[in-house]
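ping. complex inputs:
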Amino acid sequence: MNSYTTATHATTADAEHTHAHGPAPGLLRWVFTTNHKDIGTLYLWFSFIMFLFAGALIMGVRAELFKPGLQLMDPNFFNQLTTLHGLIMVFGAVMPAFVGLANWMIPLMIGAPDMALPRLNNWSFWILPFAFAILISTLFVEGSAPNFGWTFYAPLSSTYGPKSTDFFIFAIHLMGISSIMGAINIIATILNLRAPGMTFMKMPIFVWTWLITAFLLITVMPVLAGAVTMILMDRHFGTSFFNAGGGGDPVMFQHIFWFFGHPEVYIMILPSFGIMSEIIPTFSRKHLFGYTSMVYATSAIALLSFTVWAHHMFTTGLPIWGELYFMFATMLIAVPTGVKVFNWIATMFKGALTFETPMLFAVAFLIMFTIGGFSGLMLSIVPADYQYQDTYFVVAHFHYVLVPGAIFGIMAAVYYWLPKWTGHMYSETLGKFHFWLSAIALNVTFFPMHFLGLAGMPRRVPDYALQFADFNRIASTGAFVFGLSQLIFLYIVIKTIRGGEKATSRVWEGSHGLEWTIPSPAPYHTFTTPPQVD
Amino acid sequence: MLLPLRKKILSLTLSICLCLVGPTAWADYTLNMHRGVTEISRGIYQLHMIIFWICVVVGIIVFSAMFYAIIWHRKSRGVTAAHFHENTTVEIIWTIIPFLILVGMAIPATELLIKMHDTARDSEYSIKVTGHQWFWEYEYLGTGVRFTSLLSTPQDQIKNRDIKGQNYLLEVDNHLIVPIGKKIRFLTTANDVVHSWWVPRLGIKKDAIPGFINEAWAIIEEPGIYRGQCAELCGINHGFMPIVVEAKTEEEFNTWLEAKKASPTSHPANTGNTP
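pong. complex structure:
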């Protein structure tokens, strides 16, 4: 009903402005644009630059860890590199990339002319470059950049934090504002601008997962803002939220942080689930298996994500009933996650599979995300977690879910929709080369970290005992190859933008959905008259 | 075009492998968790292995189904796609079976956890462990014995000016001496930021948090030297505050304790050792 009336308004508005217009000339187009495709492009380029930058930071870390002893940097700089790597990858690379994909694809998938709040959209993007300029500038200020890890546990970040912590706090606030506005925009778009006939249960799964992700964002970003504000108060206004000496509670910081942090993990994976649910059916030439259960499983994962935060804190001395509850709740997440994996495999089963680059990334996602899920299940078992906590086993676990999960998901999406965006096909040979190099290097990098963690290597150390030397050398080698192979990705994207085989509007033989009904490249304005969905 | 690409990938894989089998010996590496020397650490090890093998079995089943589809249901084999896209029975089955497996995992985990939390009963010694930036301080409660334990690896080894010793970064000036066969309660706290006291072979990792006292316990079964490290990022020298526990027979321990009581108590210094 709602979507129908909105669509009628759009049609009358369209009749009044019959003149079609393209992008404004000149570079200022990018500053003032309110077009969802332009803003999507800005988000995606920004996140790619941040991805390369944060990747470069971790190359420094892996170089230092290539062999035992301090070679290249002092421990403080090492801590700054790991901290900024984590912060920039999470807030600068993964989240903006998903918002960029949402900007480009949600209006095209639901048959909307643009995002519901275009000016807000412009603002939520343009906050980001300033936020990250502030954060990255801390590398050049007197003293030190933030050096307490991306989790900024108090009192290391409050009482003991470097001066630049205040820059970090301000940057986090800006990123939070940007994320919240982006999430509001996505919710408003999905709830109001769907084409007539597109009921909720007809929405593409990518739209569904983003709707749920947006609610997660709106719920937890203010919690993060609260956490950094309390740190700010402790640092400058004489409060003792997290200062035991003043009656405060350092463990409360961890509760607040992880109440944000665990849903944040799902913010970084749910849109990827949506992408997989688009790509796997396309290249299996078969409908997604269990659409309804996919929607419910995603919602269940999102709801459960609010109830499991203290599994990051099993060694902090929680009472036994607390540990038992958080163990059981965490284990429960395996059920809906398992349902999703089974559904994807059932989608492939008895399909007619082809393995273009997006599908390769999707299959790699499926395998490696499942491995990351297994180590996650192991981590949920409290007694065993006492040995895994804060070791390289955890580093292996979350990189197995985030690199194949979030990063491969984003790359799969880029290969999948790049022909729609640019009107050109990318080079399949180069794409496959990029895929194989990345997939092999990823495993060479992160698989040995399981062994390192089990053998007893703590995370976030600049130097290590001699028995860890072999696996560290392997991991560093893999990391350098993985890092370099992303330059191939950059080359492929630029090459595809500049030219290549013309893409059809359908692009893929098995593709379904509104975005494939419009020409490639997608015109500057699409669906000014809403399509009718049966 | 395809063939040279495959060759490239192959040669690259090979060169990575060659790079990995480097000059240093593989004698010291470990692939798995240690069994450790306490009942708890062995319990953890067994639990870890049970869950690991459950994951392996589930993984084999799931990936077999996937690779079956990848191999046999390719378009290049001339297959046409089927049309099914839901099956309530199957979906209920694959929701319930994982749930039952999880219940099976939760039972032994709960049992062990209850045992681990049983810190206070029958403990014969209580040792207070205080984390500082960047060293540990140990206090044998009720005896007046208290000392600090600092990294003893020479700076020259860390800065690569000297050959690294066998226990590089895992050696300290004062070992934490404990008796075997006795229930020891460790009380962890910290003086500045959050640290974490971790000795893998005792199956203990407890955060040392300012303003809090956490508990853990161990009955060490055999004499020996058990090494560990701080596990929570605590600032610049987080990687340089190891833990060395030396377990002795009760007589040796008592002799040591009496001697220590007689000697002047060493107090914590306010300076860490900076590499």
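The two ends of chain B are 53 Å apart (CA to CA).
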